[in-house]
Here is the input.
Amino acid sequence: MAEDAILGYLEKNEEIPDSGKFAEEFGIDHDEIVNVTKSLNAYGLVLSQDIKRESLVLTDEGKLYADTGSPEMQVFSAIPPEGISPDELQRKVGPSVFKIGFGPAKQNEWLERGKQLIFRKKEHVDDKVKGLLSQIQAEKMVEPGEIAALKRRKLIISQTWKGYSIIKGPNYALKRKKAATDLTREDLQSGAWKDMELKEYNFNAKGLPPEGGHLHPLLKVRKQLKDIFLQMGFEEMPTNNFVESSYWNFDALFQPQQHPARDSHDTFFLKDPSTTKLLPEDYVERVKCVHESGGYGSRGYGYDWKREEANKNLLRTHTTAVSSRMLYALAQKPFAPKKYFSIDRVFRNEAVDRTHLAEFHQIEGLICDRGLTLGDLIGVLHDFFSRLGMKKLRFKPAYNPYTEPSMEIFSYHEGFGKWVEIGNSGMFRPEMLLPMGLPDDVRVVAWGLSLERPTMILYGIDNIRDLFGHKVDLGLMKKNPICRIGLE
Ligand code: PHE
Here is the structure.
């Protein structure tokens, strides 16, 4: 409205000489006129020039006297013709009016003091102060000397009023074109772009808060674990093949072909391609022998080992399948000790419940060196788990087809107040290592655990489906804190 008024007025008139008067005339708030003028000026629709005016305004005290009369007048009016004692006069007008008004009334020779009483000296007087204040209120001219006197009495103050004089600017138009913020394909095709006014970039605009990505708790914990392994001098194994052959997943690990884990109830087998084509033939031959009739000090399992069973493709059920590939590769070169780790996904054909999923992540560590003992395994487990903040460990004898001895790892959970199983470990069997071609005295100690378990404990999640899978609340990803494994 203010904008239309200004632009409309300038179409017919040369100038708006005074924005204050203009505002009054059109009944628009002057602040609004000021804001619109600034904006129109910035776009060159008008040119404005500052104008300043000194104006006098009454203070609260001044306003009061303009209404009720000056204190000197109040004092004068309270004096009856027969005179009044000072005490009585003060009581009548009140102490403050008396204090302020008595002096000026006396100076004006409106009153005189007798021995005991105060008398009027004049019949009628004129309340000049009230008159002056009313004149100033009405914006009428007043003598400079009078102004100075009223200012001294703090009944009026000067104020600077700021406004504009306004004329047409170089981009004057009756209506402001809305500056375009987008140049579209249609604008270009229709030629509308020629007349378009484009909005200036506002480099000071705050902009939208950047919506960055958020790491899943599993990724945060994985990063911490990876750092721990790297600090301990372990190298990461390549785990980028989810599809594995039964051979590397089971046979190479001395897991017999009748083992229940090799059933389709426990393992996802692939339909297409259902079998692998490439296996290291001479090594396969040694594995077949060790399963069937043993060797390397073993009696074997004594069954007919079938190549077709080994060829079957599956989704790897543990990352130990990768370990077996890596150890075999190691055996093909002159021996050098190695420390390997991996953290990646594995798959098991399991009924999903609050603690089980058909796919999860395994953390696996192994050390391969000459003459390692169970003591070395226990030592490295203490080192590894204490870096996770688990200082109290216990081990329980267990069974894995590929390790002997095998140990389940338990850690004392302060929160639960009990020992909880946190992983599995062991020393790889000679039946597994020797057919690969590793030297006789090379031992491999290894352990594995799930990534989900420690993550759930760290983030206080008690249903695995809240952590992983399609039911995960994305808000959780945004809100969950950084992972502070083992920091005390
Ligand atoms: N592969 C074992 C599992 O899936 C873990 C493990 C790794 C055990 C290495 C011993 C040695 O539970």
Q: What stands out?
A: The mean pLDDT is 92. The chain is about 35% helix and 20% strand. The radius of gyration is 48 Å. The pocket of phenylalanine is lined by residues 318, 320, 364, 400, 403, 424-426, 446-448 (CB under 6 Å).
